[in-house]
Amino acid sequence: MQKIRSGTVAALLLGSILSPFPAAAAPSSSETIREAALQDIVAWDFVEGLTTEVGARPAGTPQEARARDWTVAKLKSLGFANVRAEPYKMPVWLRGRDEARVVAPFPQRLVLAALGNSASTSEKGIEAELAYFPTLAALEAAPDGSLKGKIAFVSHAMSATQDGSSYGYFGATRRQGPSIASKKGAVAILIRSIGTDHHRQAHSGIQMWADGAKPIPAAALSIPDADQLTRIIARGHPVRLQVTLTSRLLKDQPSGNVIAEIPGNDPAAGLVMAACHLDSWDQGTGAIDDASGCGIIAAAAVHAAKAGPLRRTIRILMAGAEEVGGDGGRAYFTAHGAELHALVMESDFGADRVWRVDYKLPAGHEALAARLSAALAPLGIARSHVAAGGGSDIEPLVKAGIPVIDLQQDGTRYFDIHHTPDDTLDKVDRVQLQQNVSAWAVALFETANAQESLGIK
Amino acid sequence: MQKIRSGTVAALLLGSILSPFPAAAAPSSSETIREAALQDIVAWDFVEGLTTEVGARPAGTPQEARARDWTVAKLKSLGFANVRAEPYKMPVWLRGRDEARVVAPFPQRLVLAALGNSASTSEKGIEAELAYFPTLAALEAAPDGSLKGKIAFVSHAMSATQDGSSYGYFGATRRQGPSIASKKGAVAILIRSIGTDHHRQAHSGIQMWADGAKPIPAAALSIPDADQLTRIIARGHPVRLQVTLTSRLLKDQPSGNVIAEIPGNDPAAGLVMAACHLDSWDQGTGAIDDASGCGIIAAAAVHAAKAGPLRRTIRILMAGAEEVGGDGGRAYFTAHGAELHALVMESDFGADRVWRVDYKLPAGHEALAARLSAALAPLGIARSHVAAGGGSDIEPLVKAGIPVIDLQQDGTRYFDIHHTPDDTLDKVDRVQLQQNVSAWAVALFETANAQESLGIK
User: Which InterPro entries match (chains A, B) (predicted)?
Assistant: First the structure.
């Protein structure tokens, strides 16, 4: 039995060095912040710690509660002010056994994962004939009642995109497919995973039952399994499947947000808020989704705080329950929506480098956008003319008209890993993570200190 | 419900075109064969068919029996002569549930797969403290009895090698680790998967209990899980694990080899035999291990047969039960070892390109080696001065002194996939598969027609 070196030493030292943040005598320049943050160790330490010491963090579970405790302690040790968890309650869907096999014509096992809110089969599962649809449109075109007693299988062809836009388009199969299949009489639905990899792991994800759609068992096949099933179907024989997807529903389970601040010196100028989410899907350890986002914003706030006094308070929102519908973001808005939010931003698209910056600012803020874009350019980040849209956790604030800036991350490999067991620490590239921290530190510093009014009337 | 195009048309046409092989009026040159085989469709059709219509083929199971039936029919349709299955019986180990979780200090699930011949836990599993060893040498150095009541965990650091040699070295952890841990009193052993990937899939594989070692539960963690456990151990707290590995042992189950031939016209010149194995591990569909090898040798024999009359008979051995100890290869040697084998070769290292050719030929065969090497060179294959060693299925013949040639495949990514659920059709590159067929067709043609005596006294 041998001891191996501890990875926690850096974290302990960091806490003592950075707390309370030793502010520079005069504000640093964005260039100084940018270069310092490229050497960041706070984000990696956060991601390594949360994924190792907590692991998977499904919304509304004891694991998510452990993540809140861990995060409150970590943010306090980093020197943040006003660190607290803000609880709320929510319904919870819990995965059980996910099993499937081809009964005929070629008996073999398939790898799949139930989708969030899937109905549960019995422990013995169900057996039925398969009805194949190459696209969601083909499923939509099936006559009402034509799927009675059958298992629908919807394939499609998602491919990787740098901006992640293919997820919006192809993700409809996961979001809407189960309700459509149910309304047409299917006893269950399988979809090809919404993903871009070629590994034998299924991509989970939430889906909500449409009004009038009776919940049925719903799952995603791994991409190699979906391809295999498509080849089997191509032989032209009727295909029978046995599917066992057990799950449970619990009411009123505890979840919560974690909030922390770096106080500014002009409360009337409003808050700059940076968001991420603490919960994860259950199969992986949520390293890229979204421990990385939380590590990035925490580290960036630390670097901004070190750089000098801030005009605006930087608030960190590490939301609960993003994956299952955004309960945390809504709870935040209910509690804090009336406070003065000058600007909101979110990091929830992995750990790969920021390649683009998008803005949605009020009229008269062109100089700020130009200033920030110039400060980000040395990081390889290009200004776009696409309007920023934010993320799930800040969606209620964005809808309420708060200005938003998006530091868009490269999504080319994000959907190789997203919502699979493979979402683990080894998928995080330390250098790309540091580039994110650097971009965020600059953005938080520039916007927190901006003399422009932003979202404050 | 829509039909998609059938992939079997080519196979059906092929059978009628190629059977019986329309021999050229005069023997073709190696160049003609090499170029024709680079357009091969037989190997892909074989691999696609076997992995789709049978899937996983664990030794001694009904799936392996279906694979024999499928293969006999396929080889007959390709025009081979003397196609038959040759049965034998063997003991079988069958996987049950593979589950593990960290109980303390950081509760979370781990992904693992039992190793072949692992003892079974009860349905409730076992819980014990972990004893960590970074290397097999560290486990070997532990005092006798020091592991009493503990679960041993052995990590190590396998990295990819083009020639696959790191498997021999690091694979010792899987082959010997369980027996060593058992003899020192461990209640179970976990190893870091013998693999080079970063996916959440465990690499299975066989291990044999040494004399005097009591079977204990033995499993491989996926590499991200082994890394995670190592990080958890690094925190310095005692680590407790719960491990459930259920399995069954069956006696005297049916297995078998499939044999087929392309008859030559000089029986006294002996056989040239090409081998692969039909069985696979249970987690994947055995596309690279070893449907590809079987597809390559079958396709290459077809191309050699088309090229012209052959002096020597080419025999194809598609062995059973390679993965679990080589029962098929031994059964073949018992039945056929006394027949005249001029040369043996095996394809069992995936589907990636051949990069090197190794020889072990009797004295006086330098001209043949030079001729064959020159014919292979345009495929990017370099002659080595390493002695050829063959593979498991021909090991008894090689040990008996039969000459052997190895067409070494690139193993750089082989152990990313080997013995995992990821061993599926999408991992086979069609162009690299064709390069294999081309190299093998040339090698079979040159050796079957060689005027040299090879292994025939």
Answer: CPQ, Peptidase_M28
Residue A434 CA to residue B350 CA, distance in Å, equals 38
What tokens appear for B183 in the block? 């003899």
CB within 8 Å: B52 and A106: yes
Residue type present at position B409: Q
Answer yes or no: pTM beyond 0.90.
Answer: yes
Q: Is residue A285 within 8 Å of residue A425, measured between CB atoms?
A: yes
Give the residue among B441, B369, B375, B380 at the shortest CA–CA distance from B410.
B380
Q: Which CATH architecture has domain B106-238?
A: 3-Layer(bba) Sandwich (3.50)
3-state secondary structure of B454: coil
Residues 6-65 of A with CB under 8 A from B: 6-8, 48, 51-56, 63
Q: Could you tell me if B137 lies within 8 Å of chain A, comparing CB atoms? A: no
Which 406-435 residues of chain A touch chain B by CB within 8 A? 420-422, 424-427
Predicted-complex ipTM score: 0.90
Cα torsion for A241, A238, B51, B275, to the nearest 10°?
130
Which numeric CATH code is attached to B7-91+252-449? Answer: 3.40.630.10
- Structure-block tokens of residue A34: 């940018």
Alpha helices in A78-222 (DSSP H): 136-141, 165-170, 172-183
Each residue's pLDDT tens digit, A241-297: 999 999 999 999 999 999 999 999 999 999 999 999 999 999 999 999 999 999 999
CA nearest neighbour of B36 among B293, B305, B264, B263: B305
pLDDT in tens, B161-216: 999 999 999 999 999 999 999 999 999 999 999 999 999 999 999 999 999 999 99
Give the residues across from B113 on adjacent strands: B220
Q: Where are the domains of chain B?
A: 7-91+252-449, 106-238
